[in-house]
UniProtKB/TrEMBL annotation, chain A:
GO biological process, one term: response to oxidative stress
Name of the featured protein: 2-oxoacid:acceptor oxidoreductase subunit alpha
Molecular functions (GO terms): oxidoreductase activity, acting on the aldehyde or oxo group of donors
All residue ranges annotated as the Pyruvate flavodoxin/ferredoxin oxidoreductase pyrimidine binding domain in the record: 261-474
Pfam families reported for this sequence: PFOR_II (PF17147), POR (PF01558), POR_N (PF01855)
Organism: Chitinophaga oryziterrae
Keyword Oxidoreductase attached: yes
Domain Pyruvate/ketoisovalerate oxidoreductase catalytic: 21-212
CDD domains: TPP_PYR_PFOR_IOR-alpha_like (cd07034)
Keyword line: Oxidoreductase
From TrEMBL, chain B:
Ranges where the Thiamine pyrophosphate enzyme TPP-binding domain occurs: 57-204
Lineage, top ranks: Bacteria, Pseudomonadati, Bacteroidota, Chitinophagia, Chitinophagales
Matching InterPro entries: 2-oxoacid:Fd_oxidoreductase, THDP-binding, TPP_enzyme_TPP-bd
Gene3D superfamilies: 3.40.50.970
SUPFAM superfamilies assigned: Thiamin diphosphate-binding fold (THDP-binding)
Any Pfam family the entry gives: TPP_enzyme_C
GO molecular function: oxidoreductase activity, acting on the aldehyde or oxo group of donors, iron-sulfur protein as acceptor; thiamine pyrophosphate binding
CDD domains according to UniProt: TPP_OGFOR (cd03375)
Protein name: 2-oxoacid:ferredoxin oxidoreductase subunit beta
Keywords annotated in UniProt: Oxidoreductase
Organism: Chitinophaga oryziterrae
Biological processes per GO annotation: cellular respiration; small molecule metabolic process
Length: 616, 344
């Protein structure tokens, strides 16, 4: 048996990196699930290329999965890695700068042969595993291919199929290193390959071989143990942002008693919502993979017109295509949800990388005076509650609503203390059922005190009426080109959206004093980095606070007051300065920005430096 | 939601008119089409509230405002996609799409072909006037070659679409052609479109007397109509001519015009069969430019009808099946997923 010792640590950041075909996303997901079930807090960051199969062994082909787990509460996937698993030379090269000095490298030696070194652009004759350049790290080399083949020497599978199990060897080994059991992955493999016994057996065998390798090889003298996290009591599961978002939609559908219709066109990183919702037809959900982005949103408009909840999902370029139809929904004043999982832009941009650069598009990216509410999500699990709210606003205020998430939280995972159905609020929906007493004729643009018009769906006798994209006469909804009427209608549509502020919760301070030197104001996926940075500075006694906006349009009514309670405002964003423009415009406040536009999240470390500067 | 319907107690065409002033140009072919639609509606036996007319943008797309049913005048080219979403969710409604050659074949061409291949059970009325009217006289995707318009002062070099061949190419299950100037025929074809279970594509030749007056004169006016238009009917030979003395015979796969009474009789002619996909393809290709010497006459009528399951029936069947097999969705089970852990 192993004579290794087990050392208790609090916090680990590990990155699995390899070629796109090496199964690193699966390896990372498996380790995450295992970690979640064990009871650590965790946060993940999958990072993969846009190409499905970039040339094997090259730098563009590197796929990575970063995982942060801890016995404490954590809010980000970690700034730098403690451990880097590199399946080939390109994976090492691409990720070495993200590894802490003194960190552990586990390198699969067969990925460092002459060909792989050349593909990773190492100079002729240079092998980083052998030339001493990694002396500042703890380097462990394992010939994974040889050991995998060895473990499968009795198998009848072909060599190529045997080699496919390599990632299981690595996973087994890392399980050993962190004192874990194999059970969750064994269960997963049984379900995945139940119908292919030889593949199942090879994966199970290699997983166990990886674990045993750690146990028997004397090179590894230390194992690590991360205690369960001290989290709020309750029942948890692991969840990604796109799954939480899908469940939020399903829950809102159940709580409003509305059937859902998703009209959409596949686009990274939003497609998983379509995949997810298409599985749940028994929740009275219809999904429609349309011929393009425009048909995605317009079919959803048709469904909303018919009394279903119309939803469309997309990412930035798709939003651009949907612009005209959003304007139609604004004129029709019917409920609709437009979900944008933002990615790097402009144009096709960085399809698999994250960015928060569609906020101004959501605000202003349509022709005419075209106000729409905007709701954003801040963490993977927050997508559930946030989209539930977006849904509520759409049906209760008869308006299209834009929901902003991004690639980082869409694909990232974290533990979620999920709610019970009974604890979720009902969403009251009112259809107009017919003419009321004293009502001689149906007036489709007659409004209530919220300035909301009735939802009157085809099939309702007595309410036959015509609506469309041409300007409406106030109250009657007839076509009108009258100049005064247009001004009135533009103002009414704006006021209707502004009034939503009366029906959303006030802005809260996430952390820190209610008055003080610096307020870090964030929105969306910067939540974890801001919270971690502010926590650090608060523990040092600084006067710094964190507020995070969910309701981007209209803003909560008390936001302005909050902004005036601090000497300085910092707005970090993964864009070139968008929320900051809106805040300056609406409140005449000289906020400062921190902008990182590299397709990756802002780290805690860089924010701490920036906030310190402002505190001086 | 209420789908209760009351019997359409003796509705008349008037019940389908609205209080809105009709604003098409005087003499526009759209007036006749509106009238024929209002005329046949009472006879369909559908309560008014269950009828929805969806249109895009263009002159024809003002149609919903003049029909006292549910209606949406949407955005350019997208009526077909909006109608698809509506029909998918509300299959019991009678949905009619009003579109034009620009709206349905140019900016909205993509949605039109996809609606047809999916076979939603709704009716597309494509008003073809071979011109852009609302934008004041540019050529359209159905305008003939060499056409001089505001945007083509040297003549159009665009090759025109053959709308019915396009629809058939998209595997439409019902394709037909009629004209604004033949009320009886148009009424008949509107009824047939409605009766078809599946997507019906009815092309209606419509005269734009402002920007393209007389585009279809040769097919619609008394003097030339008998020689230039051929009205096809199920099971009947293809006969035309003022004296019913001409017919179309298939020489292999090539249609040829023959004189009757001499070498050929009606028995030698092409007999129309709406169910025959191959013949329907040939029929859509009777699309000669009438300016060309020796051209074939233009067919009108139902070219083709087939049956295949509609999109909305299959979609809703999947919903029912999933519910029958798994039971109605259980939210708590869904939220918990398969793997949870508890912290005390």
């Amino acid at each position: 048996m192993s004579n290794s010792s087990i050392q208790n640590i609090e916090d680990v950041v590990i990155k699995f990196a390899g070629d796109s075909g090496d199964g690193m996303q699966l390896t990372g997901t498996q380790f995450s699930n295992n970690t979640a079930l064990f009871g650590n807090d965790l946060s993940t960051f999958p990072d993969f290329p846009a190409e499905i199969r970039a040339p094997i062994g090259t730098l563009p082909g590197v796929s990575g999965f970063q995982l942060h787990f801890s016995s404490n509460r954590i809010f980000t996937p970690g700034d730098a890695c403690d451990v880097l698993v590199a399946m080939n030379a390109a994976a090492l090269k691409a990720n070495l700068k993200g590894l802490k000095k003194g960190g552990i490298i586990i390198a699969s030696t067969d990925g460092f042969d002459a060909k792989n070194l050349r593909l990773a652009n190492y100079p002729e004759g240079v092998n980083p595993l052998e030339d001493g350049s990694l002396a500042n790290y703890q380097l462990h080399t394992i010939d994974v291919t040889k050991l995998t083949r060895e473990a499968l020497k009795d198998s009848t599978l072909g060599m190529k199929e045997k080699d496919r199990a390599k990632n299981m060897f690595v996973l087994g080994f890392v399980y050993w290193m962190y004192d874990r059991t194999l059970e969750s992955t064994q269960t997963f493999l049984n379900e995945k390959f139940g119908k292919k016994p030889d593949i199942l057996e090879s994966n199970l065998k290699v997983l166990q071989a990886g674990y045993n390798y750690g146990d028997t090889v004397e090179a590894f003298t230390t194992r690590y143990h991360v205690e369960k996290a001290r989290m709020e009591p309750g029942t948890y599961r692991s969840i990604t942002g796109n799954t939480a978002l899908s469940y939020g939609l399903i829950a809102a559908g159940q709580k409003s008693n509305l059937p859902l219709f998703l009209g959409t066109y596949p686009i990274t990183p939003a497609s998983d919502i379509l995949h997810e919702l298409s599985r749940y037809k028994n929740f009275n959900i219809r999904t429609f993979q349309a011929e393009d982005e425009i048909a995605g949103i317009t079919s959803a408009i048709g469904a909303s017109y018919g009394g279903h909840m119309g939803i469309t999902t997309t990412s930035g370029p798709g939003m651009a295509l949907k612009g005209e139809a959003m304007g139609l929904a604004v004129m029709l004043e019917i409920p609709l949800l437009i979900i944008n999982i933002q990615r790097g832009g402009p144009s096709t941009g960085l399809p698999t990388k994250t960015e928060q650069s569609d906020l101004l598009q959501a605000y202003y990216g349509r022709n005419g005076e075209c106000p729409m509410p905007i709701v954003s999500a801040s963490t993977p699990s927050d997508c559930f509650n946030a989209v539930f709210e977006a849904f509520r606003i759409a049906v209760q205020h008869m308006t299209p609503v834009i929901f902003l998430s991004d690639g980082y939280i869409a694909n990232g995972a974290e533990p979620w203390r999920f709610p019970q159905s009974a604890d979720l609020p009902e969403i009251a929906v009112k259809f107009k059922k017919g003419l009321e007493e004293g009502e001689e004729q149906f007036l489709p643009y007659h409004r209530d005190e919220k300035l909301v018009r009735p939802w009157a769906v085809p099939g309702t006798p007595g309410l036959e009426h015509r609506i469309g994209g041409l300007e409406k006469q106030n109250v009657t909804g007839n076509v009108s080109y009258d100049p005064e009427n247009h001004q009135v209608m533009v103002k009414i549509r704006q006021e209707k959206i502004d009034k939503i502020a009366d029906h959303i919760p006030p802005q809260t301070i996430e952390l820190g004093p209610e008055k003080g030197k610096v307020l870090v104001l964030g929105w969306g996926s910067t939540y974890g980095a801001i919270k971690s940075a502010v926590l650090d500075l608060l523990s040092e006694g600084h006067e710094v606070a964190h507020a995070h906006i969910r309701y981007m349009r209209p803003f909560p009514k008390n936001l302005e007051e909050i902004l005036h309670n601090y000497d300085k405002i910092l707005i970090p964003e993964i864009n070139n300065g968008q929320l900051i423009k809106i805040i300056r415009d609406q409140f005449l406040i000289d906020a400062q920005g921190y902008h990182k536009i590299m397709g990756v999240p802002i780290t805690k470390g860089e924010l701490v430096i920036k906030i310190r500067e402002m505190l001086q | 939601m209420s789908t209760a319907t009351i019997a359409p107690q003796a509705l008349t065409a008037k019940d389908f008119a609205t209080d809105q002033e009709v604003r098409w140009c005087p003499g526009c072919g759209d007036y006749s089409i509106l009238k024929q639609v209002q005329t046949i509606m009472p006879g369909l036996g559908i309560p008014k509230e269950n009828i929805v007319i969806v249109s895009g943008i263009g002159c024809s797309s003002r149609f919903p405002y003049y029909m006292n049913t549910y209606g949406m005048h949407s955005i350019h080219g997208r009526a077909t996609a909006i109608a698809s979403g509506l029909k998918a969710t509300r299959p019991e409604l009678s949905v009619w799409v009003v579109t034009g050659d620009g709206d349905g074949l140019s900016i909205g061409g993509n949605h039109t072909i996809h609606l047809l291949r999916r076979n939603f059970d709704l009716n597309i009325m494509l008003f073809n006037n071979q011109i852009y009217g609302l934008t004041k006289g540019q050529y359209s995707p159905t305008s003939e070659e060499n056409k001089v318009t505001k945007s083509t002062p040297f003549g159009s070099i665009d090759h025109p679409f053959n709308p019915l061949a396009l629809a058939l190419g998209a595997d439409a299950t019902f394709i037909a052609r009629s004209m604004d100037r033949d009320p009886k025929h148009l009424q008949e074809l509107l009824k047939r479109s409605h009766a078809h279970k599946g997507a019906s594509f009815l092309e209606i030749y419509q005269n734009c007397n402002i920007f393209n007056d007389g585009a279809f004169e040769i097919f619609t006016e008394k003097g030339s109509k008998p020689e230039e238009a051929i009205f096809v009917e199920q099971g009947q030979p293809l006969i035309f001519g003022a004296n019913k003395n001409k017919g179309i015979r298939l020489d292999g796969l090539r249609p040829v015009v023959v004189e009757l009474g001499g070498e050929y009789s009606a028995d030698d002619l092409w007999v129309h069969d709406e169910k025959d996909f191959y013949k329907a393809q040939l029929l859509t290709r009777l699309f000669d430019d009438p300016r060309i010497e020796g051209h074939l006459p233009r067919p009108f009528g139902v070219f083709y009808q087939a049956f295949r399951p509609t999109y909305e029936d299959q979609l809703n069947f999947q919903v029912q099946e999933a519910t029958a097999q798994k039971g109605p969705g259980n939210l708590d089970k869904l939220l918990a997923g398969r793997e949870t852990w508890t912290i005390k």
